[in-house]
Each structure stands twice: as structure tokens, then as C-alpha cells.
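$ fold --in a.seq
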Amino acid sequence: MILLFGGTTEGRVAIEALEEAGSPYYYSTRGDEQEVTLHHGTRLHGALDRAGIVEFCRQKEIKLLVDAAHPFATQLHLTVVQAAADLAIPAIRLERIYAERSADICWCRDFEEAVLEITRANPSKLLALTGVQTIGKLRKIWQKGSIECYFRILDRDSSRQLALRQGFPLERICYYRTGEREESVLEQWQPDAIVLKESGASGGFMDKVEAARQAGIRIFAICRPPLPDGYCATVDGPHGLRRAVEQWLPSFYPLHSGLTTGTCATAALLLAAETLIEGATDHATREVPVCLPNGETIPVRASSDAIGQASVVKESGDDPDITQGRRICAQVELLPLAAAESWDTEDYRIRIEGGEGVGRVTLPGLGLPVGEAAINQTPRAMMIHNLSLLLRRRHIPPHRAEWVATISVPDGEALAPRTFNPRLGIEGGISIIGTSGIIKPFSARAFVDSIRKSLEVARATGAERIVLNSGAKSEKFLRRLYPELPIQAFVHYGNYIGDSLQAAHQLRLPAITLGVMIGKAVKLAEGHLDTHSREVTMNTDFICRLASGLCTPAQLQSISRLTLARELWQLLPAAQMHSFALRLLQACYDHCRPLYPTGHLTLLLIGEEGEVIMLE
């Protein structure tokens, strides 16, 4: 059992991470104004002091505390770690992602220093973006009257009442509007200066800063307070939180997460680069911080094998694959450039190569040039981004040289025949892959249960339709199509299309929109209601039969050689693709309709760039 402290964006992130377990937990907030969806969690309202936390945890047999409260909630942070010490249980801090502090911002240790700095600068008009709770802390500025001061607060009665209790006039209040551009706010209020808290990425800190920079407005920022000692782990995203919970409370998640080959290769590259920079290695294993595609950082254990060389033992969690326990290696070299080569002094020159055991691309359609090492685009971008961060952190300037990282998998060539690589035209080894950097396993039963619960919540919103979609990418496109629907109306089916439609029928949902991308659509059209690659692979013979009469013999021959279904978008002209898509969707509809026989069913085929073809 876990007790989670939230009330913030990070609280929502933590909820999503904990909900994946299907295990019970408690979610505690001081007030009751935050709207969240809990399937397995129990909501608690009201502030808890140290004694209250201890008593509650003993009564409910809490084994782990998670602090996802606001970074400026200093008293709560201290209370959480003190209570954890009293109970002899671990506490995890879910922190925000912060940008490096820029010299063009006036950084203030606290609100007292901010008052002094702002008073000294004496702007004619100040817009405070620090929230209603800070009106009193900036009282010395706005009470004097020499600086025209405005506050932006949430548009709710409790915030207005708090502003009035602190004596601040409502006519100098502006309200936070969801989705409003920061540039628009500054254009409307025309301040000479703004003051804000170092609230991190989720607090929109850099958006506010960039808007102020563009408008030539002076920026004062209150530094986030330091965290107290006592947390067993500090993480800054959902993947890190899950992995920390898996470490400190292993029984909470029935299945544990793992690392993609891309994340392992990135960690190995970083440690290899460290030893090359230092010119020495201790041949030790250490934790290397790796920035994932979502911006959060997780630690990965890597071993330094020699100067410029390191490796990571692949950890697949409870979704084991053939690379489990295998070594992913990296060698980093710094090579001089020829004098005639062009050079951009703004960026580092970084090249990623494939070595032993990494396959080579022999067919088009994989998003990589033929002949290139089979290192997918996301892992490549991860490696380049992380190495650039490391070089900047070590204050190594760009110069006329190229950093070359060679990734290898000693067992890769022997493992390759046991993968889909030969079918995709990748020869000589495995691929370095991963879109999120993390492998998250789900039991089929737990995932289907979560779909049903999400559908129940969606029904409770009263939304006119529920939109089933495979995941975050397709949801992003579909929310543009249905902007009026609440977020709860968008439910992820993963690969379990059949189970999702059956649940929708059992719950008597009146209207369902099923959004599917073409890779899943060609499987669904053939009658495969679970589209996971472990269950079914793309059948080009079936696609050819479906396209018969619409495509020329030459096009059908090209279809028979497809490696990925998404190549169809480039292979067929737009009008022809539209006709094929309608035929494909009709085949999908024929398999879906018996599972959802009474409601209104709409099918959408979603393109890679968000284009949508509809069948009603």
C-alpha cells in the first residue's frame, strides 16, 4: 500500500504511474478542487501533519510514501521525510524537470530577496505569476503604490476570496485561462517586469520566460527551495517513479519494467565518453543518468571496460526478450575533421555507427537509409542529445572534431534469426530500438480491466461519444478532431481492440469512435482482434487481396515486398490511398461490428502525420 501526496501536475503523473499496477493506494491533497480519475486509489482530503501521517500509515499498513507535492511546499516535504523516518519506510520524491538557470534572469533565493531586487529595479508595472498564495509575500511591493502591481490567479471563488483576505484589489487581478498563450497575457497587461517561481517544465516556467524575453520584459525568478534529506530516491517522471517503486516496494507492481536496447546503448555511450574525457577508467560499475525522450532522467547501471569503452547488461524486466542479460556495448572516439570540411560552431558533431551484432538495413521503408546500421531514429536522437548534454555539462566547447560512437552487441548476429529482423530486411544482427526508452509489461487481464474501468469513467462524464485509440500518438491526433470531448472520453486500447469493443457493448455505450493506425488496421481487417506483434504479423498476401482491383500489378508487386504497413501512405497516390483506406476500414468494421452490435460505431484510419479517413 502506498500513500501519495499530490494536488499538482506531478500528482496526476504519479496517479497514472501507480494505476498501471492495479494495486490499491491512497491519494492525499489538502483541498478537494483538483479533478482526478482514480480506479484503484482512494482520495483523501485535508492537510496531514507528521503525527497524522504516522497514525494513518500504521492504521492502513502503508509501506511507501510518494511526495508529488508542489516544489514550494517546503513544510510538507519536511513532514513527509520525517514521517517516513518515524515509520522506518521509504519515501520517494517525484520532482519536476528544470531547465538550467540563465544569466539574463534575476534569480532570488526567496520572496524577501525578490522584494529587495524588484524594489531596487523599480519597474513601473509588475505582473506577478507566482499565484494567489504569494500575494502576502509580495505585500511590500504592491502596498507602497510606487509600482503598479498585478497578480495572475486561478479563476475560482476560493482564490478570489483569498486575494481579498490579503487585501489585494480584485481590479488588479488577471485570471489563468487554460490554453492561453503567455505572449497574449503579456500583450494584454503590458508589464515592464514579471516575477515568477522556478516552477519547472510542468509549471510552464520556460514558456513564461521565453514570452517575456521576446517582449523585452525584465524577469525575476524565485529559486525553488532545496529538498530536505531523507528521500530514498528522487525522480522526475513517470518511468523513474515506476522503477523506484519497483525497487523499494517490489510487490506493488505484479510485473516489472525494463530498459530498451536504445536506453542501454545510450548509457554505455555516456560512460564511454566520460572515460575518454577523463583519460582514465576505474573499470567499475556505476549509475549513469540517461535523459529519456519524454525529458525525464533515469539512472542506468553501466560498466567501464576500457578508456572510451563501456557496456550495459540489458534488463528487460518481466517482459523478457532475447536480449535479456546480453551486453550492449559502446566505443567512443574523437576524430579530427579535414580542414576542408564545413563546421558549425553552434553544435557538436556526433556520429552514431553500428558495430558487431548490430544489423544493417537492406530494404527501404524502415525510416533508415539502405546500408545504414539498424539503430532507430529515437535511440539515435537519445544518444546525440545525451552526449551533447554531457559535453556541455563538462564545459567542452565544439571544435573541429567529430565524436563517433560505435554501438555493438556481441551476441547480436546469433540472436537475429530469432527476431523479426530477417523479415524486415535487417541482416547481420539485431536492431537498437525503443520509442519511450522503457519497456512496460502489462498482463492481459490487468490491461483489459483498466480499459473497462476507463470506459466506466468515460460514461460517467456524459460525453456524447467515447473515442478508443491505441495510445498517446493517436490520441493527440484524435483530440484535434474532437476538441469538445473531455479527456476522460479518450480511452487507450493498446492492442486489445476486441476486448475494448466487447466492454463498450456490455456497458451499453451509445457511440464509439475507433481510431486505428495502419499497422494495426491491416491486422484488424484480417480478423485479428489482438494486434500485438507476439500474436500476429503483417500479412502482405492479405493486403494484396484487399487492394486487388484498386492497384496496378506493379503496385501489388510493391505491396508484396512491404516491410512496414505505413509505407502504403507513400506507395499509393492520395486518391487511390483513400479508396484503399475505405476498403480497409470496411473490412475492420465487419470484424468489429459483431462485438459492438447496438451502438453507433465510427472507424477512423489515422495517418502518420495525423490525416484521418473516416468510415461511419
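$ fold --in b.seq
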Amino acid sequence: MAQPPILSWEGLGLQQGSRWLLGGPERENIDLHVGPRDRLALIGRNGAGKTTLFRLIENSLEADQGIRKVKANMRIVVLEQDPDLSAHETLLDFALTGENPPEEYEVEAIAGQLGIDMATPAKGASGGERRRAAIARALAQDPDLLLMDEPTNHLDLSAIEWLESWLERYTGAFVVISHDRTFLKRLTNATLWLDRGIIRRKDVGFGGYEAWEEQVYAEEARAAAKMDAKLKLEAHWLERGVTARRKRNQGRLEALWKMRAARATMIDTSGTAKLKLTAEEDFKSKSVIVAKDITKSYEGRAVIKPFSLRIQRGDRIGIVGSNGAGKTTLLKMLTGELEPDSGTVEISRKLSGVMIDQQRSLMEPDKTVRDILAEGGDWIDVQGNRKHVQAHLKDFLFDPKIIDTKVGILSGGEKSRLLLAREFAAKSNLLVLDEPTNDLDLETLDLLQEVIADYEGTVLIVSHDRDFLDKTVTLTLGLDGSGSVDVVAGGYEDWERKRHIHVVGKSRGSKPKAEETVNSPATETAPAPVRADKLTFKEQRDYDLLPARIEELESAISRGEEILSDPDLFTTNPQKFANISKGLENARTEKDVAEERWLELAERVETA
């Protein structure tokens, strides 16, 4: 028998100015129900009202119609996309605020796992530090319902994987807004689709969303055709051409697979790109960046060990790794912005690049969209061809009427999209993208993938978005923090697969084979090594990560027991005593489960 919902909205409606943003008399009623173990992906275009819906669920915004029902004593916590830290001295000061402020030891325990110093001044904190502090604050409150708005923004891959692992163990419900397709596919079991003022729900995770979306649009189109009332349909999805776009993307993906296969034949076991053709000179003539044995160290630590790579015209290179692993250092050396300590980088004199950075530094708030794109005019040169500004805006999913809108009032996602529209218009043969997916919605990500696929030059991408890399790059440079750089033909999943093959080899006490060593890329012609221990990808990850997690839990349990040893705590602060007792109970349960899981996996590895 299904459990009753922990939160529901019946007949929800919200006006925005003179129009109804959600529900309203001309639309069907909005009924929303969240179960105690729901893992919901909230999908919708920028401006559809996703963050507004969060505020209605949290009850920080009053609806114009509808009835909200919440289970008694339920704790709802919001992980905001851009929390305001201006009133706080340190990240810890920020984390210990809220309606139900968490215990300091709980915050510090989570912060330690995320690798963030909570004593960092809030004023100078980076985007990644602010995001980690917000996560520590939210998770430490032990929510029954967790609302997450773009939780992976500004996080590196290791932090994203940690958050995924935490959410897999989490026993409450969550609703998440995210552009990270891999994150959504791994964690969600149902989808809320906010579209044209109504909310649809389907009990299928994000992996089934696109097929569902296409089915809904196809049914609406058939119904409209029968009624001879196509004009009643919203223009945006008709123009978008869902089915046509999917077919185009399939064609682009097939072309990408062919490019990866060709690129795999150019890589030798030392990580240097070579072309196995009779016309070696023809290969060299196509090279745009040639790095030979480049190195870089800071304060005695090797950030980049001797590394060589030949980048060809048309290559799409992805650079991945944790924060501090050396991604930006490598990118700057490859583009000539930073000199290597040793080795050489040769850059083609014909190379003219465009840099799109994660700070969106070119967006001036007092300028209009017209100013940004066309310096106040009506026409813009797009890759050497003259085009009207409004037509160019439409290509990037904007309403052409925003042409005289000031940049300062645009949303973060709209600013990012505007920057893409501006920079992709410039004629260039090298495109450098530094975390380009932050603040973009799923539609804009699809568009960005299309533009990159059609771009005739070379592309260098630093990103934590795994699905985006898998759909755009032909070659991945993976940094593990040791100074070594893996060169892998393919995307993020190809690099991740190679990493785990290497870890398995080490954990079993055997020397890795030639194709498994650092700096030796996998190729499509190489046979895939067979895992003797038969662990799945998720099992191998648990086997690798659980020992550290068990240690963290033991430390948290010790701190909690020390606090509870105060004989006066129960009488002076019963609420604190209750919170810590509950936290201890949860930590002990999790530790028991983790130990049992690891011992089971270890036994399988040892007996393999």
C-alpha cells in the first residue's frame, strides 16, 4: 500500500503581474504530491517558475489559490542556487543560521568530507567554496524534504560524486532542479515537468523524461490538428521541433563516434598524438597546438608532469579533474597564456581564439542586449555573415522582444546564453570554454551541443558536466592530482572507465598492463580488460570509497558521544541533546551498513 504524501498542493495557482505563472482559471488545476521517499527531478525552461515552485513548497511565498498540506513536524530545507552570504563573517557563521540551525559538529563533519574550511571568510569565498558551505548547511539540518536548486554548480567531480553517494543513502525525499543529466539519471525515480503553467508528473526517473516529453508533444500536435486549432499551442515548442532536433542530434552523435574512433588511432602508449598514415606531413599540417614534454610545478609540487600532445584542427578536447588538479594550468599552457617550466608549446600562427569563462566577465549590467550583441545596432556579423540581431537572438532561444532589455535584469541562465550568442558570432578557429554549462537549462545545453558540433574549429572545454562532455568531445585529458595526465579517446565515461580499471589493478596487487598505465590512452581497438572480481561500476566505487566514509563516521560518532557526556546537557538544552542523539543514532546505523557492505565486497575481491 502506497504511503501518504508528506506534502501536497491542491488546486495551486500563482499570478505574476497580470498573467498566471502557475495554474489559473484558463488551465487545468495543479495538484502536487510528494511522497516520503520521492526522488523528483523538476524540469522546465528558464523562466517557467521552477525556483518559484520551490518557494511555494517551502512556504516562503504565498499562492493566489490552492491548499497546502504538510505532514506534522516535517523539516523542509532548501539548498539555494545562490545563497546570500553578505551578512556573515565566515562560511561557518552562514552554515549555523536558519529556522532550524544545525549543530556545528554536524556541519564540520560534512564540510570535512567536502574538503572545505568553514573558517574561510564569506566575503572572499569562491563559487565552489560557497556551494560546499551551502551543502554542508543543508545536509546537516537532517531534512525530511530537501529542495536542491542546481546543486552541482561550481562543484568539481569528486564533490559531485560525494553528493551523489550521500543522496543514495539519504532516507528522506528530495526535489532537484539541475542541468546535470548524469546526476539526474543516477538519482531520480520520478519527474515533475513544469511546462506552460502546468505541472505534469510521471513516475519515471530523468532517464525516461525525453521520451515522455516527445510523446506529450506528439499527442498535443495530433489533437490540435484534429481541432484545426494549432494556433492555440505555444509557439516555443513548435519552433523547437522536438522530434526533428532529436534526429539531428542523433546524426551529430554518430559523427562524434566516428571522430573518436579516428582519434583513437592517433594515440600511442606514451600519450602523444600520432597519426598512423603514410602522409605524416599532412597530419602535421593539420596540427594547431603541439605540446612537447611540458611541465609545471608550484612550491615544489608537480602540477603537470612531462606531458606531450598534438592537437589537430577540429579536435574537441575535454579537460577533467578535481579542483586543484591542474586543469586551468594545463589549459593556460596549451593556449599560450602560461609558460611551462620545461618543454615547449607550439601554437599555429593562424589560430585565433575566443574564450568563454565561467565568470561571465563580459556581461555589463547597464548595457542592453542590443549593445552586447551589436554595439547598439540592428545587424551582427555571425561567422562572417550579416544577420539581424533579433534573428540571432531567436537562434539562441530568446524572445526577440528582449533586444532592448538591460543585461542586469536577466537571469543567470539568460546571461550565460547571451554570452554564448555573442561569442559564437565571432569568427574564430579556436573556442575555449571554461565551465560553460553553469546556469544553463537543459534546452540551452542541447543548443550548445549543437553549436559545438557544427563549429569548424578546435574546441577546448573545462567542465564537470559528464553528460555534456560525453556528447561533445573527441579526446579527454584527465588529471588525477598527481601531476600525470591521462589522454583518452572519448568522453568522461571513457576516462572514468579507464580510471577504475587502473584502480582495480592496483587493489589486486598486480601491475597494470601497458594500456592501463597513466598517460596511456585507451583505444577502440584495444580489448577491454576483464574484471576478475566481477564488481560492477557502482560496487567498485563503494569498495574504493567506503573505508574513508567509515573513518569519517567513527570520528563523528566520537565527537557526538563526547558532547553527550556532559551530564548537564539534557537539563540545560534538551533540544540539542535530542538532535545530537538522533544524529548519533543515524551515524551508527550508517556505519554498520557501510561496514557490512565493504566486508561483503572485500570478500568477493579476495576470493576472485
